[in-house]
Fold each of these.
Amino acid sequence: MSTPAPPTSERRPAVVLLSGGLDSTTCLALARQQGFEPVALSFRYGQRHTVELDCARQVAEAAGVEHLVADIDLAAFGGSALVDDALEVPKHDDVAELAAEAAGDEIPITYVPARNTIFLSFAVAVAEVRGAADIFIGVNAVDYSGYPDCRPEFVAAFEEMANLATRAGVEGNRLTIHTPLISLTKAEIVQLGVGLGVDYSVTSTCYDPGPDGGACGRCDACLLRAKGFADAGVPDPTRYTAA
Amino acid sequence: MSTPAPPTSERRPAVVLLSGGLDSTTCLALARQQGFEPVALSFRYGQRHTVELDCARQVAEAAGVEHLVADIDLAAFGGSALVDDALEVPKHDDVAELAAEAAGDEIPITYVPARNTIFLSFAVAVAEVRGAADIFIGVNAVDYSGYPDCRPEFVAAFEEMANLATRAGVEGNRLTIHTPLISLTKAEIVQLGVGLGVDYSVTSTCYDPGPDGGACGRCDACLLRAKGFADAGVPDPTRYTAA
């Protein structure tokens, strides 16, 4: 049995999926607080806007962690309002209207086919190359459970699969997919992040930012985020678009 | 209950992962023979050579099927002789030497971290957008079982995960990952393909083709392929490099 090389620090390596939004930014801060040395992983995947990648870069910089951006090509397959210009991002006047629609049990049009599956698969590749046994993803099943790939049963099945797919799994170094936010409300996530010193002003959550990069204030993500700050009793630092 | 629009043909849509090699080309022919109308899906993933993509294009054209090529960025993560210029592709003098090494239970250096996981994840996205419930992958666990993500237990776990990840799974249209070659020897695959009319002269299997695009004849993939033709009693149509 060979002795593994000691890490550059006492921290264990980890991969954190980072969109630059509120949830993944909180997740990154939490991974650091739990003693990990994270590599943040973002994707250029044919988003209609690049605001979130700019935010991810700023968030990683502020956290002092390495930031990888992988280019992938989801737009070519179409099928979601988030990557397909021909589909319109739904807007609502308030959270009550959104909640009524979400209760209809429909998968929202903003769902990107297999997105978390693809993102986690890349995270597994990075984890394997970097010798990390821990992957963090900020999925959340409470406020908005319309996406099938945000559910705990999906994450558990992914972890199982990943351990059969990889060298690490075969060699007995079990990979763990951490979802520390999965059962928190948006308000609880905000409170957690504020406690960890997260600066939410550099994060972006909006599905459809204005030309100035500001949040639209009316898409599902904006409404839930604003409600999170309100419920948490924390001033909302979001910069809304002037348009 | 709404009546689904009839397909453009009587064939059911499917996604077939196509590398342009012997196995995936046979898999494509088999999917067609089983009554599917496949979309072939290939990847530009930082391969050291593009011979296999040229072959995939020719194979898809010969089969008369639509061909998608997705750009992904595995090379940035490194970690495999197949995508990393700094690592050398292992060469052997004959199959016996290769077999002795493979029996050592080591995962070969040509293993690309999480590759099949990533490829299948993209196939799930395409399947979901195209309304296909069937994905074909030409993995094979007999001749060469060193890759963890070629094992039946990996494929079963992936299928389970995919059905929790997707709209199709949630709505009860179960996705199936077909691995028709998984328990066949290379010779049996060749015999199957010849029976289906596959022209293996346009396929490429080599891990390290020469500057003229010809096969090296000495990497693991070349040795197993040559043995497959020999064992099947079929003349080997492979074009070897002049170098």
Amino acid sequence: MKLPEFADIEQAHERIRSYVHHTPVLSSSTMNRILNCELHFKCENLQKVGAFKFRGACNAVFSLSDEEAAKGVCTHSSGNHAAALALAASIRGIPSYIVMPNNAPTIKKQAVEGYGGQITFCEPTLEARETTLARIAMETGAIEIHPYNNFNVICGQGTAVKELIEEKGLFDVIMCPIGGGGLLSGTSIATRALNPKALIIAAEPEGADDAYRSFHEKKLIPSINPKTIADGLLTSVGELNFRIIQRKTDEIVTVSERGIVRAMRMIWERMKIIVEPSSAVPLAAILENKLDVRGKKVGIILSGGNVDLEKLPFHEFV
Amino acid sequence: MKLPEFADIEQAHERIRSYVHHTPVLSSSTMNRILNCELHFKCENLQKVGAFKFRGACNAVFSLSDEEAAKGVCTHSSGNHAAALALAASIRGIPSYIVMPNNAPTIKKQAVEGYGGQITFCEPTLEARETTLARIAMETGAIEIHPYNNFNVICGQGTAVKELIEEKGLFDVIMCPIGGGGLLSGTSIATRALNPKALIIAAEPEGADDAYRSFHEKKLIPSINPKTIADGLLTSVGELNFRIIQRKTDEIVTVSERGIVRAMRMIWERMKIIVEPSSAVPLAAILENKLDVRGKKVGIILSGGNVDLEKLPFHEFV
């Protein structure tokens, strides 16, 4: 299995440039003063569909030949990838088939439908999701686009840090959260090429620490009964992603739930932007002193902003 | 009394350019599709201190001669202007004296103190605020910087729409909220000069409609017992501001409280940014069909993002 290289990310960037938002990079003087470092946040919460996932989905969809694309794309997801794939397919004018667990939040279903995705519901187990997806793929001829264990998805995700470094110059540290590893693997490839001296550090919730354990034990350990408020980071790391991460990433650290909520609140209050808990995980690592960033220039990818305003967590950890 | 001209706004922009954030302009394809128009939001909620007020305060502070500045600046305010003036003074290295009512929210006091402002508390009446400010000015020799009825403050506020038009080209409609009129007067001068054909429309809460009534009755009518969730828009329009607005603004419309909350929620959910209720007032006017923007390119200044996360209004108007 060929690993993506930086040239593939450059091609991905050309391919998706006209479809994705060139998201802003924001910073807060007050936060920098409090934390004694220079933080630059790449705001993928302001990306289309509210998450970096649109980059990868877009690259995957527009990498297909006309013949491949004709019958559409499919995936199983209850999260941002589902909405991202539906929108990317809709832009290309092809159908998208999304398998979702029947207990998925109404807000997620509405998002997928709003972008033109055709939903098939199934029981909320991985097995049901996979068999349903296999059936849908068979019936429709649609091509499966995995949310992260996919060459073109990884290349698309790598374009966020490419924009960050192109805009703000070289960094001492680049950080992002890790769930399945799509963002981290793409980020690691692009950073190694553009900013070879930067430390590449991923952050993960303690309650879903399969990437941390896999990285340190040097073998892929699946996520079993993960539990965290960072609902974008519950999945197990993908095989292709793990191979890249082992080669390119410097460190993975874990953070507490309290730290995630504290970091999320700091971003909302100080930066006036809405991020979902998963986005706050790298800042939580800084707040919890899991790495030393004093005096350093740090780039952080904020992964997404899809959070249910009815269920804000700020009271849970006071 | 000389009225500011566009050349004064250009000078203000040069003066403050290195101190203020060049804030991003964001848009949402989904909102544009729903509302059948092209909205561009100038995000002054992402400005320093979380509000456009920093532009005006900065221009006022840096317009002072060294001699004038030496003894510092003062104002009475419990809102964004207080924090903005404290930060601007702190950047120039001069003292700032802020008179605040003794019932001001803790979060506001902390913001002013955090930026180095020296607070004097007084009874929560306009008379107490004015007499206390007069005493402080006398004792310290500090120069008063009014939050909006001030030539240099108006010129500073006008730089936001200048950036918007320079970045995104000409608009059919330019909108902003109106409270004291600092933002609207500066916005109107800059828009008339850069984009003469644009309609300039301000939006105001029904419960604080002194600007609406003043504009239509062609005389300054003070705000008496205003009541609105848009706490940045409670003040009466300033005299200098009103003279400019009468000459340059095309229309003022009013919106309901329910409309403000609905618009605020739409901005949070769709754009993933935090805006305070005052910022949502122009979008509320569009949602409530107070003007016809179908097919039009509309620029909206989002005035600020300082909102107490403990007291979100989303349940009040369900």
